[in-house]
Amino acid sequence: MSDEAPWLDEAEMATWLALIGVVMRLPGALEVQLRRDADLNHFEYCVLVGLEHAEDDTMRMSDLAFLCNGSLSRLSHVARRLESEGLIERFACPDDGRSTLARLTAAGRERLAKAAPGHVKLVRNLVFDELDDDEMRQMGELAKRVLARIQA
Amino acid sequence: MSDEAPWLDEAEMATWLALIGVVMRLPGALEVQLRRDADLNHFEYCVLVGLEHAEDDTMRMSDLAFLCNGSLSRLSHVARRLESEGLIERFACPDDGRSTLARLTAAGRERLAKAAPGHVKLVRNLVFDELDDDEMRQMGELAKRVLARIQA
DNA sequence: CTAGATTTATTGAAGGTTCAATGAAGCAGG
DNA sequence: CCTGCTTCATTGAACCTTCAATAAATCTAG
Predict the structure, then answer these.
(1) Which of these CATH numbers, 3.20.20.70, 3.10.20.740, 1.10.10.10, 3.40.50.12780, describes A31-116?
(2) Which of A51, B24, B67, B73 has its CA 20 to 30 A from that of B50?
(3) Is A150 in the B-facing interface, judged by CB distances under 8 Å?
(4) pLDDT tens for residues A61-108?
(5) Burial (CB count <10 Å: 0-12, 13-18, 19+), residue B6
């Protein structure tokens, strides 16, 4: 932990305000579309996408929670809702009796299909259409390095 | 709204995952410190900081909500809590009968003083210590442009 | 001038997230 | 083995945010 200069200078403050602005506003912007097109919030969408990209559409709860950048408790509550809607199913892990596996159902895949096209369009519209290829890669690299610190 | 290519290529996806990771995890990381040091969540902290930087420590509710990247309804609920703790006070705007002004109290300033040093340290630790000056400015510029799209 | 539209703010209800507690399953050392 | 420690997951309560409804003040078009 750094232990120096008390506050941020002008350039740092400008950067921080822009970053925190994106952090605070992006989820809400994404959720408008997801709610309208597929009645999902952003975290629910991440869960379904995470499963879709996994082997056999199946993943351990705790791995899924990490992938989706949420707590296990949060995922557990969300999984109950998604399961009650038939979008995922849960079952005991054969290899480790402590673990639960979650799997995307056909209905879950259909729901995802309703959300995804509009979601991608929106992501392009909000982020990628604004950046050229160099800027996009630079943004990714910087975000990746900051993310590594947050996760540590 | 762009209306092209259906999904993100590999580099775009890597960028998106890093960006969304920061977006999802940063608030939680900040709140641990704020809760510990000053029993505030991040939005409450933003409200107090916003007022501290304003003329006469006073700002219209709707301007404050925009500055803090939240809805007016959210601010209204939070303002009730902060006011009941004596950290801010609210009063009618003399110029426009529809508006309410919020002002930071002495107690609010003290509470902020408990939170701020640790908050700045954490922000430096998570973000600015990772970036050199060029990278910091680049990040700020890119975030600013993306934020402009989100706000529009 | 005034009727309707807009801006500003608050409120209650519904829904989602966090936090702490609980418990089951596996692991590690004696 | 069996005791304590760790991992994995769920749960309920408390808390926070969102959404829709409400209402007051201001603006605007005719």
Answers:
(1) 1.10.10.10
(2) B24
(3) yes
(4) 999 999 999 999 999 999 999 999 999 999 999 999 999 999 999 999
(5) exposed
